[in-house]
Amino acid sequence: MKSLIATLAISFAAIAAPSRADEGGGCHFHGSKPATADTVSGCATLRKAQLVKQGKLDATWASVKGGAPEQVDGKKGKEWKVTLQNPAATDKAKQTLYMFYTLPGNFIAANFTGQ
Question: What are 13-70's pLDDT values in tens digits?
């Protein structure tokens, strides 16, 4: 009986763990199947919110919507690029945020240079 309870407890913990993942945790993909533009757009929204929450982006970015994801040639082949514009940013050099994702939809990086 004790082993049944232990097995059930471990099974429940394994099932419940993904629901406690941080923001953006649902945007981790395996394989090489390309993600849809809608999927990448949703992941960019989640990642942006996470960056604002962590203080890596100013709070004015919270309401900024991303443009349509586009496929670009990256260092390791094709990848997705999402461009966000924030005219409320005080630093003119930081009014455009670029977010990069692998073709399957995994986050690579975010920066203000587009490189």
Answer: 444 333 333 344 578 899 889 999 999 999 999 999 999 999 999 999 999 998 899 9
Count of Cβ atoms closer than 10 Å to residue 79 Cβ: 21
Instruction: Evaluate whether residue 7 is within a structural domain.
Output: no
pTM for the structure as a whole:
0.75
- The answer to whether residue 6 is domain-embedded is no
Rounded CA separation 82/65 (Å)? 10
Q: Which domain holds residue 66?
A: 26-111
d(CA 62, CA 77): 30
- Total structural domains in the chain? 1
